[in-house]
Design a protein that fits this description.
The structure is a homodimer of 298-residue chains.
Chain A: H1 3-9, E1 12-18, H2 22-33, E2 37-43, H3 47-55, E3 61-63, H4 66-69, E4 75-78, H5 85-93, E5 101-104, H6 110-119, E6 127-128, E7 130-132, E8 153-156, H7 164-176, E9 180-183, H8 186-212, H9 217-222, H10 226-231, H11 239-248, H12 250-272, H13 276-297
Parallel strand pairs in A: 1-2, 1-4, 2-3, 4-5, 5-6, 8-9
Antiparallel strand pairs in A: 7-8
């Protein structure tokens, strides 16, 4: 069965997107473009962002009240920073219908699952934890675009309690967005993404933060080239979202930060003692791993 | 006087490019495209790269002997890693003509100037230290392209001894490549580029090196998204070139590595003690500095 025929079966009458930013807004736009959703209600905290979302056709209706918005919904995507998810879940739990399926777009999974188990109560069996591996450094409804998920992986982490019908709906929705589904264990997910995503973000944020503290920061940055620009692109990401992710995935991240500090210390030692061989060995290891990885991706 | 009319006056009979990689090869291609050079001789250590350079029209002739190649040259560009420059300079000094102008493309300037002063002898007055702020993560003659320097800055660091006529020639050549000239003091240059280029390279190399040491490295990298890809793009750069740069700009780089470690330690402490406020402050500082910088660049 092709993914086109799969998604042609998908019909979502009412989609509610809580947190109409890059992740939630793009989910809505992609499903609208695939013509599989009839009506999208966006829920958010600020009127300004919701107005933007409506004006740009990212959502059809706006609401400031998640609880009333989710009534009669077929699918709810929680697209807020992970730190807000417990509150959102607690708010909507009493109003969720018996058939409403809930999913999320959070970058950490163990904590989101723990919150859902606690706050969604009986509805937990229709909660399908997911994490789309897609994003840009921009945030807000205006940054959303329908193609964000095309050919990207979405990690799905269904639990023992999760109903197969809920998994099918969420899978079909992400596939209608053009994404591929990958299943992972929640713990494995969190450890892997601490390494390939959360650590790199902290590394980039810290690099720009440190440069920004210098009095000559803007002059300095003015002379920089494409290398720095690409290296710190992700330092333009949402501070709130990344604080939440760092807090949520604390243990794995701390361990990786230690490994990274050790590696930097090795580089520092090699530079200080003029040990060119050690330095070139490190740089070669990095270059080789990167090349192999790019080859596989191609 | 427009830059077009400036470069229309420029005529280089014989250009010698020592080290036909991304920097040297692109310099040659750009000057050929601007039709300001008659003949380009490429000097290198490996026959294979020189053959590639000739086949791709990057150079007209190849030589394995720098000393004989520079005879009768109007302009010599030393495009090797900075660690090879003393040897190259010592080799060519005896054969340089009385009118031959020499420049380089090295990413550090204080050490290159010191080497030139020592090894070029009387020819030092026609040596114009320069550093084009352009590059990609690729290396070798095949990575060269004529547009590399278009609208990019080239830092020029002429010394008291440097002849005005030599400065004019080198300036005109870079301008014919489409670049803008910026003058900086050598020490200031090295300190600034330690911050905006050398440190980010070490940061990126160390990040990939550390991930590459894990047994699950390739699986891990397979799940990563665009964030990591951009952050570590520069970890694909030439290990030899970057070893040389790190060694050459050791003092400034060590100081910055310490500041960076301190900043990482701040992030680590905030994560460990669940101090979300401190973390968000750091991330906001980074995001704001990056936005300002991008605004200026636009």
């Amino acid at each position: 069965m092709s993914s086109a025929s799969k998604s042609s079966k998908l019909r979502i009458g009412k989609l509610v997107v809580i947190g109409v930013g890059l992740i939630g807004g793009s989910f809505s736009l992609a499903l609208k473009k695939a013509r599989v959703v009839r009506r999208v209600v966006g829920v958010g905290r600020t009127k300004k962002n919701l107005d933007t979302a409506r004006r740009l056709g990212v959502i059809d209706e706006a609401s400031r009240d998640a609880a009333s918005a989710v009534r009669d919904a077929d699918l709810v995507l929680i697209g807020t920073p992970v730190g807000q998810m417990p509150e959102v879940m607690a708010e909507i739990a009493a109003e969720l219908g018996e058939a409403t399926v809930v999913t999320d777009g959070g970058s950490t999974k163990q904590n989101v699952i723990a919150h859902a188990r606690r706050f969604l109560g009986a509805h937990f069996e229709r909660f399908v934890p997911s994490h789309p591996i897609a994003g840009t450094e921009n945030s807000g409804a205006a940054s959303a675009f329908a193609e964000l998920y095309r050919d990207r992986n979405v990690i799905m982490v269904p639990q023992i309690e999760t109903k197969a019908s809920a998994v099918r709906l969420v899978r079909a929705a992400w596939e209608a967005c053009g994404a591929r589904i990958v299943r992972l264990d929640a713990r494995q997910h969190d450890e892997m993404f601490a390494a390939v995503s959360h650590l790199p973000h902290v590394v980039a944020f810290a690099l720009v933060s440190m440069l920004a503290k210098r009095r000559d920061a803007q002059t300095l940055l003015g002379y920089s080239g494409g290398g720095l620009r690409d290296t710190v692109r992700i330092a333009g990401s949402s501070p709130e979202m990344w604080r939440d992710i760092c807090m949520a995935n604390r243990e794995a991240l701390l361990e990786l930060l230690d490994s990274y500090s050790d590696e930097l210390e090795l580089a520092r030692g090699a530079i200080e003692s003029a040990d060119g061989e050690a330095l070139i060995e490190m740089f070669r290891r990095a270059r080789t791993a990167r090349s192999r990885w790019l080859l596989k991706k191609a």
